[in-house]
Amino acid sequence: MTVRVAAVGYLNARPLWDKVPVAMPEASLSLASPREVARQLAEDEADVALMPVAAAAAFGDVEMVPGIAIGARGPVRSVVIVSQEPIASLSEIALDLSSRTSVVLGRLLLRRLGTAPKFLGMEPGEIASQVAGSRGALIIGDAALALENKFPHVLDLGQAWFEWTGLPFVFAAWCAREGRIDRAQASLLARAKELGLEERGRLAAEYAQASGLDAASLQSYLHQSIRYDLGDAERAGLERFFLEANRENLLPRAKVRLVGDASAQVAVPEAIDSLLSRASQGERLSAAEGERLFTEASLHEVGAAADAVRARKHPEGVVTYIVDRNINYTNVCTTSCRFCAFYRPVGHAEGYVLSREVLAEKMQEVVDAGGVQILLQGGLNPNLRIEWYEDLFRWMKQTFPLGLHALSPEEIIHIGEIENLPVETVLSRLHAAGLDSVPGGGAEILVDRVRKVIAKTKCRSEAWLSVMRVAHRLGLRSSATMMYGTTDTPRDRMLHLLKLRELQDETGGFTAFFCWDYQHEQGTHILPSQTGTEHYLRMQAVARLMFDNVDHVGASWVTQGPDVGQVALRFGADDFGSVMFEENVVSSAGTTFRIDAAAIEGRIREAGFRPARRNVKYDWLTVPE
User: Per the domain annotation, does 515 fall within a domain?
Assistant: First the structure.
């Protein structure tokens, strides 16, 4: 049987995978960035992956191949923070997002220096150009080697770790989901390492010729700077890293577990009560731990733990809601999502674009009711250009005193594609025209296998996250969402939460999280999986436990009904969502619930809380009563 092997393409990793085809003829080898390799393992596109150890901790059910790693005992040279000014004085740091390990280690070391700069996640090609003044950059891998001696101030993360702990640091290791590879296959990877280390001279020479870098320097890098062992000292360093990162709530609790380790195989899993206790106190959970809570904890227990988190984060006993209106400005869409009954293809007789007269009537009703915001979303209509949106936004903001929470990431990407503009330019122009914040629509499940099934032409998960990253960088806040219950599994949902949580670590730009189940009714074209009231309450509660870094969780009464929405306030939610003047997407599938502000406040009081109106930033607009 073919073993799917994924590995990082950097020079420092090459000695470990270069001879995999020789040592493991049955293997299929693919190369990618550290982040992509970790995603492949998590989403079952690889059986074993040479990937960042921080990602392994976040997943939680990963074993490492013994004896093999990419690490350093002192200067590593290829994981550095660089700047024009002293590191401790930096106000911003551009982050190379390729490796979660480097990002977490960088945060730990900067905190030890007593500095807390703002972090700006960027793609590797953008990083070096961002270094100026009080903005530095975390640069990793081959790009760091190309920039050696180019900046006056450098913090080598390997050296800084060794000076702090006296221990080696492990950046990456061969990792596999539990039971995916055995000792024999681990031995073949060890053989590939032996053969690869013998080729370091050749590998350095080839890279020197291709890159123009000094061959002797690269020889030294592969022979002295990078260490390829995972022995007792390296294991101790890795355990210390996991401990320090968990103390700072940057990673879940993690232990080094090795393929074929008999003691680990007979270890008793942590009791559910213990997991719930840690989560309710705000400790970060892994994806595997979240999955265990979803599948093993009783509904009452997981709800009580989520309620404890809600009470700890919001001890004042207030539940908020917003008076706004969801306006779907067009139903014309080219995506053809199988779960959507709302859209119409281009040229369909029932396709529409709302006129300004209709929009004005709808918005005036919101103003008359004391509303504060319009949630504006629609389909991907190729006939609407960016100037149309700019003109519309300017008119809306000049005519009505309402906030504009508009355009999902999918719509932003669509506008960029038809205009041949980068996402940042699209968002900057729309922001200047009046866009105040970005809704979290179109996330569905941020696992590409699922997205390809339910909406083949929809953007991939990383593209959705990238739009939110850019929006947050520009100062636009956003919500985070999840629609589950199509072809997704509990594991997929936890990976979705993990991706949102990691982006929140980076940007802090998500105000709140909302989830709901797939509404399988008339007009939809895919069967449901786990849906219904119990699954909804369980999913919301687990999300509240997983999101240690997101302040607010909203009850989705629009899909579940006001009764369930009220119960959801005891399953981790501290917000009752929106007064719905209208809703078209969910109701197109047959689900229709309506409730006004007075009824919302009554539901909140009946549940034992004090209601308060809010805006999109969750500022209270009324005094809680």
Answer: yes
Q: Are residues 392 and 420 in the same domain?
A: yes
Same domain, 57 and 120: no
- The position carrying tokens 């969402």 is 481
Residue 219 pLDDT more than 80? Answer: yes
Q: Is residue 295 part of a domain?
A: no
Cα-Cα-Cα-Cα dihedral of 533, 539, 541, 545, to 10°?
Answer: 180
Q: What is the DSSP string of 444-469?
A: S-S-HHHHHHH-TTSPPHHHHHHHHH
379 and 360, same structural domain?
A: yes
Q: What is the DSSP letter of 61?
A: -
Residue 347: CB atoms within 10 Å: 7
Bridge partners of 119, per DSSP, are: 93
Is residue 619 one of the residues assigned to a domain? Answer: no
Same domain? For 43 and 173 the reply is: yes
The encoded tokens of residue 530 equal 């786990």
Average pLDDT over residues 283-308: 97
Burial (CB count <10 Å: 0-12, 13-18, 19+), residue 28: middle
> Domain total for the chain?
3
Percent composition of the chain: helix, strand, coil (DSSP 3-state, to 5): 45, 20, 35
Asked whether residue 343 falls in the same domain as residue 406, the answer is yes
Task: Classify residue 623: in a domain, yes or no.
Answer: no
**Half-sphere exposure (CA, 13 Å, Cβ side) for 317?**
7
94 & 243 share domain: no
DSSP string, 99-139: -HHHHHHHHHHHHHTT---EEEEE-GGGSGGG-BTTEEEEE
| Alpha carbon distance 126, 95 (integer Å) | 10
**Domain containing 55 — which CATH number?**
3.40.190.10
Find the farthest-apart pair of alpha carbons in the chain and give their distance in angstroms, rounded.
76
Q: Is the same domain home to 134 and 55?
A: no
What residues have CB less than 8 Å from 523, skipping those under 6 apart? 340, 341, 342, 588, 589
- Of 110, 134, 165, which marks where a domain is finished? 165
Phi, psi of 66 (to 5 degrees): -65, 145
**H or E stretch covering 204:** helix 200-211
Contact criterion met (CB below 8 Å) for 539 and 303 = no
d(Cα 455, Cα 443) in Å, to the nearest integer?
A: 11
Task: Check residue 76 and give its pLDDT.
Answer: 98
Q: Which amino acid is at 322?
A: I
Q: Rounded CA gap, 75 and 226, in Å?
A: 9
Average predicted confidence (pLDDT) for the chain: 91
Assess contact for 133 and 13: CB atoms under 8 A.
no
Same domain assignment for residues 130 and 256: no
Which tokens belong to 387? Answer: 């100037």
Considering the chain, what percentage of its residues have pLDDT values greater than 70?
92
DSSP 183-237: HHHHHHHHHHHHHHHTTHHHHHHHHHHHH---HHHHHHIIIII-B---SHHHHHH
**Is residue 522's pLDDT more than 60?**
no
State which residues form the domain around 232: 3-71+169-265
**Model pTM?**
0.93
pLDDT tens for 201-212 read 999 999 999 999
Contact status, residue 81 vs residue 138, Cβ threshold 8 Å:
yes
